[in-house]
Amino acid sequence: MTKCGDDTQIVICGRGGQGVLFLTRLLDEVALAMGKNVISSETHGMAMRGGSVISYIRIGRFNSPLIRQGQGDIMLSLTESEADLNIHLINKNAQKFINGITKKSNTIDATALALRLGSVVVANLVLLGFACAHKSFPFAYDIVRDTLKRMSSSKVYDLNLLALSEGFCLVEGNHPN
Amino acid sequence: MKNINDKNQRILMGNEAIALAVVNSGCSVVTSYPGTPASEILSTVSNLISINHSKIHAEWSVNEKSAFEVALSNSYLGGRSAVAMKQVGLNVAADSLMSSAYTGVIGGLLIIAADDPGPHSSQTEQDSRFMAMLAKIPVFDPSSPQDAYSMIRKAFDISEKYRIPLMLRPTTRVCHARQNVAHSSRPITLERPIEFIRDPTRWAATPRYRYILHKQLNLKLDRISREANAKPIIVNKLTKCKYCIISSGVSFSYIMDLLQELSLNEMAVLIKVPVPYPLSNMFLQSVTDKFDKIMVVEETYPVIELQLPHRKNVFGRLNGFIPKEGELSPDVLYPLLNRFIGNKYKRRTKIKASLGQRPSLCAGCPHRATFFAIRSALPKAIYAGDIGCYTLGINIGAVDTCLCMGASINQAAGFYQSFKVAGGKMHPIVAAIGDSTFIHAGIPALINSVYNNARFIIVILDNATTAMTGNQPTAATGVLANGSSGTGLPLEDILKGCGLKFLKIVDSYDVPNLISVLKDAEAFTLSGEGGIAAVIARHNCIMHTKMEKKYIMKVSSNCTGCQYCITNFECPALVQSKKHITINHTLCSGCGVCIHVCPVKAIQVQL
């Protein structure tokens, strides 16, 4: 079940209101479900009002929640500009998954897909589903989906799971069971 | 490292871990005033009460002083209590804090003062551990959510053993970190009477008895410094090593991780200080004598460092080795740790700190409409601002000052008195303050202004919530922490009670009306019989009360691309696109206020 190596450091970034916090909480829970120690950091307060928001997740033998420059293994970014802004946080071999409209690798228009599904707020889950479809991503789709089920209220349950699976299916040959 | 197989583990935010520990320690009264990074503590306690059906009084108090005194009084009667606030909130409660250290408590009292190194969401980087020192109470400095959880039970034991209030000082990176936390499954039950034991020489001590209480307090501190649970901990026993790192709080966790990353665990003796004050003389003396070089890593002020008796061989903030301001992030510590140990390291090219997108008021925020009206009606006024979301009015030039909670009103009065003494034409002055901030610290300020015949306009930005910290209820609405109803105190009644003769209530979205009322208000401040004029700009916070879109907006071809709306209104839904402005319909709340903003009326309602 677990694809997670010993230590993994993940950077999640975007703007206030884009659901960076929800992704962080979701992946924290996924790590715990996988039997890993996890510590993460969130942005609160003034920056939440549409400003730049960044979260760090550190899985494995870590005591502190911040990621040092060049140490991140994975980046999930909900805007292209925030990805550029925080690029120094990840290492050279890091995997990036970005919500955007340019034709760079691993960049998808999660916002447009989320809007088609019914709400822009699930762009974060579209991006996460897309990331899950990659072997380099340390969390398997199934465990992310099961954790998301536990964390979604009945009001958003169907939309959340749809967003995750649509994101996952963006990579050819993937079909959620 | 925790055993991950421990069944009772949950992912908890630091503030949630603190709340759970407070509840599990058997607290019967928990109070708070919201403030980042401490806000989630009381709301979590409130949730836990409803889940467990526990008999706990949890309240959002109107300010930190009230919160402190309500919690303290429960501890006078023998109950366990906790009061949570941000660091600058402790300034508001400082009077009560200083005195309570002398009177002491019977039931344990935990004062949670959350610091904000950076600062991320505060007006200062002040170190509450100095406040503990000034008050002469012990302070615990947790290094992670798990550490905060584990410390709290110990803290209550010490608080009750020595009958002394005690502080927990988490920082932003503890409060807002999330971690798998091992915790006990249920709260302890305290079998103890709640009773008032009359003791006027303690609870009502006059100065003569205060001297005796002070002497007792000093004895308590001396004994606490030697308590097993308060002593510094040597993390790695290295017999021959001559280097030592002393650290507390989240800085300790950074150092642990950096030593591990760099494989430098054998290079320095690492000492964790769970209680930075009081430290025993024996520890302070022996640590300075024993090592050739000592690095002290703590946030934000040099509290441990200043207690060391000799500092010739100490590398810290006082000798400039560690920066005197800002957060001690791992990126800041990395080169310092390497240099201290004499380890060769790859210097990284310095990343130019990019600020990213600045925060701004939400699309549809009623404050934006109010600020636009204030600037339109009184373009030359001094805009005395205050603390809250609406401090972001600075982005559109509608906030000239921001000192601390409630200061807008006293500063407006001060500006008035200053201009009056100087003579000449009266300068228009507007104090803009939110509803929660007004109740927190604005009421005595307004009474002072009325009493001393000041003249200015006070605009209360009434969005019926404490928005910036996560929409906690206010006394004006009368909604209590658990969502039930208390007694609401309408702002207009308070203003009338403060003796104001000019009071108008306007919907913030009704910009033309607001402009005309503000002009009337100015005329009142200038008239012979005039005085302070109050305007309540009222509209619910859009984050709190979700509304259907009232209007679909569009920008007509008349748009000249002058950017007046961007500069003076800064709505996130108005977007510069090539030469013209467009509407971002995803962000747009459909409030329609921007109709009044465009100088050429290009922003219109789509019919």
Describe the structure.
The complex is a heterodimer of chains A (177) and B (607). Chain A has 177 residues and is an alpha/beta fold. Chain A is 35% helix and 21% strand. Chain A has a single domain (8-167), classed as Pyruvate-ferredoxin Oxidoreductase, domain 3. Chain A has a 6-stranded mixed sheet. The longest helix of chain A has 14 residues, at 20-33. Chain A starts with 7 loop residues before the first strand and ends in an 8-residue tail after the last helix. The model of chain B has no long low-confidence stretch (mean pLDDT 95).
**% residues in beta strands of chain A:** 15-25%
Name given to the CATH homologous superfamily of the largest domain in chain B: Thiamin diphosphate (ThDP)-binding fold, Pyr/PP domains
What is the CATH class name of chain A? Alpha Beta
CATH superfamily of chain A: Pyruvate-ferredoxin oxidoreductase, PFOR, domain III
Q: Name the largest protein-protein interface in this structure.
A: A-B, 42 and 50 residues
Give a short account of the largest sheet of chain B. Answer: 6 strands, parallel
Shape of chain A: globular
Following the backbone from N to C, one meets helices and strands of chain A in this order, namely EHEEEHEEHHHH
Arrangement of strands in the largest sheet of chain A: 2-3-1-4-5-6
Largest sheet of chain A: 6 strands, mixed
Tally of separate helices of chain A = 6
DSSP strand count of chain B: 22
- End-to-end span of chain A in angstroms? 16 Å
CATH architecture of chain A: 3-Layer(aba) Sandwich
**How many structural domains in the coordinates of chain B?**
4
Task: Tell me the total number of β-strands of chain A.
Answer: 6
CATH topology of the largest domain in chain B: Rossmann fold
Protein traits:
heterodimer, A: 177 residues, alpha/beta, Pyruvate-ferredoxin Oxidoreductase, domain 3, globular, B: 607 residues, Rossmann fold, six-stranded parallel beta sheet, five-stranded mixed beta sheet, 20 helices, 36% helix
